[in-house]
Amino acid sequence: MQFIDLAAQYQHLKSRIDQRIHTVLDHGQYILGPEVQELEAQLASYVGVKHAITCANGTDALTLALMALNIGEGDAVLVPTFTFFASAETVAFANATPVFVDSDPDTFNICPVDLEKRIQTIQQEGKFNLKAIMTVDLFGLPANYAAVQKVADKYGLKIIADAAQGFGGAITDLKGNTQRAGSFGDIATTSFFPAKPLGCYGDGGAIFTNNDEYAELIKSYRVHGKGQDKYDNVRIGVNSRLDTIQAAILLEKLAAFPQELANRNALADHYHSQLGDQLKTPQVPNGYLSSWAQYTLVAENREHYMTKLKEQGVPSMIYYGTCMHQQTAFKDLGYQAGDFPVAEQLAKTVFSLPMHPYMTAEEQQRVVRELTI
Ligand SMILES: *Cc1c(COP(=O)(O)O)cnc(C)c1O
């Protein structure tokens, strides 16, 4: 059994994907070819934003967002400590300082109460110029944007929404309005790394915004700070584009995505109904839809369950066993054990089950059986 079965997905979409790849090979516009613009238009429409700008990967997408917000030396960005390294890495790469925030124990996402506490502490110390909050839609569940937006407005901060795992997720408010992941905050980003909910067959990423000025800056930054054309360079940028072949693959994968999202949610429902009595299954707040980048359980004795699964050939993984403030690369920031009690506990107790849209009923039952006998 595969943890994420990308080959099964390819078999399902093979003829259409092969056709798309051949079209690119025939027209030969390998960089920023017509499929890239076609994909960007479709992504913007799916997410519900004015601008979708593709780039080379989800890490670059965050870097480009930070560049557009002019975040650099002396600035600080609030980032959840329980996330993938790239969220915090890009802040440090921009020469700014990540200020870590604890997590909500049920959603695993940034805790709005701890967020405000950390902001007040930073303001009292006066060491940094606080610029932005980076939310992460961890494991596919959108962050608590209503609460985070209130804090951002109160303290005059921008929101960068890292939806690398969240693409496809959504929040429906009390009035019945639904907003998809990627449309929250000032700038949102995603990743098309193969194992993400919407993945390509290599590296890829995208940036989403409703702000025309940010969109223009990001389009310039991603091609060496171009002005009128790529040989007119008006600012220092990077080289970060999505290959046309990857855009072509993504066009077919995006077409299949709504069904895949439904399959993922059906699998999550199955896990929840079969495991919910015995294990702490992931919580989805009312009105939220997860894209289930991971299906993550919490157990004090996770080793027991992971060993049992492994003995029967069922893979399971730990995302994440190390918080950002515990990473060697961030040791100079001076955080101590106990600074983030919820996240530290999660790092010791979480484990994730196989989750992908093409899992057979037999495979689903095997996972459940090994956890419940
Ligand atoms: C995967 C991921 C990224 C980085 O995406 P890449 O395409 O691998 O560079 C950033 N943030 C989070 C939360 C991720 O899961």
Quick rundown:
This protein has 373 residues and is of the alpha/beta class. Helix content is 41%, strand content 15%.
What is the straight-line distance between the termini? 19 Å
Question: Structural class of the helix and strand makeup?
Answer: alpha/beta
The CATH topology annotation of the largest domain reads as: Aspartate Aminotransferase, domain 2
CATH superfamily of the largest domain: Type I PLP-dependent aspartate aminotransferase-like (Major domain)
Structure description:
This protein is an alpha/beta fold and about 375 residues long. It folds into two domains: about 5-100 and about 110-255, 3-Layer(aba) Sandwich (Aspartate Aminotransferase, domain 2), CATH 3.40.640; about 260-370, Alpha-Beta Complex (Aspartate Aminotransferase, domain 1), CATH 3.90.1150.10. It is built from eleven helices and twelve strands. It has helices at about 5-25, 35-45, 60-70, 85-95, 110-125, 145-155, 210-220, 245-275, 300-310, 340-350, 360-370; strands at about 50-55, 75-80, 95-100, 130-135, 160, 170, 180, 185-190, 205-210, 290, 295-300, 350-355. The strands form three sheets. It has a seven-stranded mixed β-sheet with strand order 1-9-8-5-4-2-3, sandwiched between helices. The protein has a three-stranded antiparallel β-sheet with strand order 7-6-10, with no helix packed on it. Strand 2, helix 4 (about 85-95) and strand 3 (about 95-100) form a beta-alpha-beta unit. Helix 2 (about 35-45) runs parallel beside helix 8 (about 245-275), helix 5 (about 110-125) runs parallel beside helix 6 (about 145-155) and helix 8 (about 245-275) crosses helix 11 (about 360-370). It is globular. The structure holds pyridoxal-5'-phosphate (PLP). This is DegT/DnrJ/EryC1/StrS family aminotransferase. One of its GO terms (molecular function) is transaminase activity. Belongs to the DegT/DnrJ/EryC1 family.
